[in-house]
Amino acid sequence: MNLPQFVRWATGIRWQWKVFIPILSVLLVSIAAIAAVLRSLEIHDVQWLLIAAVSCAILLCFVLLSVLLVLIERPLEELIYTISRVRRGDLSARVSFAKRDDDIGQLGRQFNEMVERLDQNREEIADLHQREMARAEHLATLGELAAGLAHEIRNPLAGIAGVVDVMGRELPTHSPSRSVIGDVHNEVLRIQAILNDLLSYARPRPPDLHPADLNTTIEQAVLLARQQVLSKPIQILFDPNPSLPRVEHDPALIQQVVLNLLLNGIQAISAAGRVRVTLLQVGERAVIQVSDTGRGIPAEAVQKIFKPFYTTRTEGTGLGLSLAKGIVSSHSGQIEVSSTPGKGTQFKIFLPLHRARKGPSKGAGS
């Protein structure tokens, strides 16, 4: 038996044997030493003395065993039984030896405190889950209401836009009302954009996930963003990653997210500046990094920018980043932001290279 095997064998021995083997070894060595000393002193009747010593040793071991059974074995059995009850979900289980004043009692008190804390945490989690479910139902109801209102508003709004266009064509060329008609037309378009974002937020379409080149997806968003800065001193840069494998994603939705971040970066730059998109691979995830040299986001606003209808700009609906976060979450990804006021903002989108496959379940797709 080599050393590792001996260690495994020794650790598997019950604690009673671990206690008694050293004691018995010491007693046997002591008896042998006493016998040797008695022989060296030429004392007769050594056998009787050895028998008496062995009897005392056996009696001592029996007394020690009884004490250990009362002080250690029973608390251990109770602790094992109580742990099994807790494992089955019975958080009302407690150990009775916590009333003792020794180390075993301290162990019992700490165990009871731990179970009591678990019980409290379970109640808090259940309460939180109930409140979150109620909140989710409330938000779902509001989403349905918002989607219905948006749908009802879009139809008359389209009629208003048509009437404004007709009025604009019928007005004389030099009529001062033409500028007002243009303003009305722009406001109608703005309302239509808000309604479109609201519908997308209330009723997002499920992503069509399939392996595709993420470089191509981002490049399409960059090309669209560059069209917005043709007359501005702003650079839109893209650092592709040709070695990145194909990533499971919905190209149209991820392009929408990246384009939204690019336009936010453009709007954050008041004069000359730069927006850079970098594609990286970190472990089993692709990382899309969008950085700008704009005015940045105040620290108190960083934690709020993904909330619906929250915006730090005078223009915009405040739904763009909420939609972006929802799309990234539907890809089992994450989106993070860091910003330094006066220096710029950086968004990071983490997408898994391959989604975990789930087995078929009843009601899938319902």
Q: What sort of overall outline do the alpha carbons produce when their principal axes are compared?
A: elongated
Average per-residue pLDDT, rounded, comes to 78
Low-confidence stretches: 358-366
Distance separating the two termini: 61 Å
Strand content: 5-15%
Structural class: alpha+beta
Number of helices: 9
Overview of the structural elements:
The protein is of the alpha+beta class. The chain has three domains: 3-90, no CATH class; 136-202, Helix Hairpins; 210-352, Histidine kinase-like ATPase, C-terminal domain (Heat Shock Protein 90). 59% of the residues lie in helices and 13% in strands. Strands 2-4-5-7-6 form a five-stranded mixed sheet, covered by helices on one side. The chain has a two-stranded antiparallel sheet with strand order 1-3. A hairpin with a 3-residue loop joins strand 6 and strand 7. The radius of gyration is 38 Å and the shape is elongated. The protein starts with a helix and ends in a 14-residue tail after the last strand. The relative contact order is 0.06.
